[in-house]
Known about the structure:
By secondary structure, the protein is an alpha+beta fold. Helix content is 32%, strand content 35%. It folds into three domains: 4-138, no CATH class; 168-275, no CATH class; 301-489, 2-Layer Sandwich (Alpha-Beta Plaits), CATH 3.30.70. The strands form six sheets. Strands 9, 10, 11, 12, 13, 14, 15 and 16 form an eight-stranded mixed beta sheet that branches. Strands 18, 19, 20, 21, 22, 23, 24 and 25 form an eight-stranded mixed beta sheet that branches. A hairpin with a 6-residue loop joins strand 2 and strand 3. Zinc ion (ZN) binds next to loops.
Amino acid sequence: METNINTGLLKENLKILQNSRSWSDGLVDKLEEFISNSDDYDLFRVNPLRFSIENDISESDGIDLFLWASKLNLFEMNWELLCPACGDHIQSFRHLNTMQDKIFCSLCQCEQIAALDDWIQATFTINSKIRHIRFHQPENLSINEFIFQYHFTRDAKAYEGGPEKSRLLGSVTKDTAFIARLEKKTFEFDLQDGLLIIYDFLNNRGLNLMISPEISIDGQAVDITYVKNDFEINQPQINSGRVKFTVENKSDSRLALGLFLIPSEIVANMDEDATVIMDPYLDGKKLLTSQTFRDLFRNELIQGNEGINVKDLTVLFTDLKGSTELYDRVGDLKAFNLVNQHFESLAKVIVRNRGAIVKTIGDAVMATFANPLDSVKAATEIVEDLNQFNRQHGGENIIIKIGIHKGSSIAVTLNDRLDYFGQTVNVAARVQGLADAEEIYITDSVYEIEEIQDKISGYTIIPERAKLKGIQEEMDVYKVLIGNSQSTMSI
Length: 491
Ligand SMILES: [Zn+2]
């Protein structure tokens, strides 16, 4: 295969990558193989979750690999805003601070506000200094590459288990072509009853024409002019049968035209609210709840005061303290060191369970998780670790109190750090306040998840109604006594 690889630079950067942290065996070699032998298209907007599945590695290894590879300039990370209805890349952003969350797709007239966990995708494209691919210069792509590969994400399926959305679009395509400025092109084909969409993928303008079931035998000639950023047509009524379109581009820019005929039976059954089904992808929430991302890309911040919505975020608060007994017994300095020692192990447990520490406030820690089950696993491990630690050091040395809640939140930049804002965060902090030593408090929104009930079924669970400070309504909360079974056993 003919490729444009800077082998020296690739080897050099891979060596740095290999030494940057410990990787599972052969992982960096897999990346080298991927960079060296893939098609141009496969190295464009790489989905690290797809890479993980194809290479039989864990999702978090895959994400970390591409984050490190981007940090070392092997890849470039982009934030993509996707159209929920068609999977078109509405806009790409190099950095989070330039990203906006308003989706408008002129192809499907879809209008929506994106959330970090909804239609915002992080992708990785090979750096042109490492290997040049055709997609680095979209202006040089063929028309079909430009429409079906550059525009539409391959991660979007038309329906569950269905074909790629762009393939489905391919199957209703009558013709495609670039039309240079001041150029005229003709397209001739048979039409049937349905909706003909003539769409320009460079300026994002379209023309929708209903084709009547009546058949014209003589053939029809339709003139279309693209002028002043819009299409003008000489004939509003088009019948089924042979049609010759002449499209004249009277604008200053090139057009990338696609002509699609959606059959009337599909038009009749079209659900306006239907969305594409996405293969697992790295959404903004997963990225922001990755400790590696937070460590490596500290300057990736959200701009402005409004922040970006997260539909469903799990927030865990802990409060870790040396007990009075410990301070009495060993003195302040030693107690402080013991607490710090355990603080480090707490951070490791959070990262191991795919969470990220947002901040520490005194002895308290705020962490976020994309998956609520991971937060509960982390919480139980933290308490169990602590019990073991206390047993080793003879007595109740360190106390931990944990609270978990999940819900919507707003990701914002506060004090030069990615942080979260909103009632979900307040509630999580308040339920943590209810906890005593070796107790986890979880709210109803966390408890109602079946896998979580399975996970905590071995512990004593006490349901309560709680009035939390600053929260108007009483809430259903659950006290999980993690420490109890352990301490009983140790007596
Ligand atoms: Zn769309």
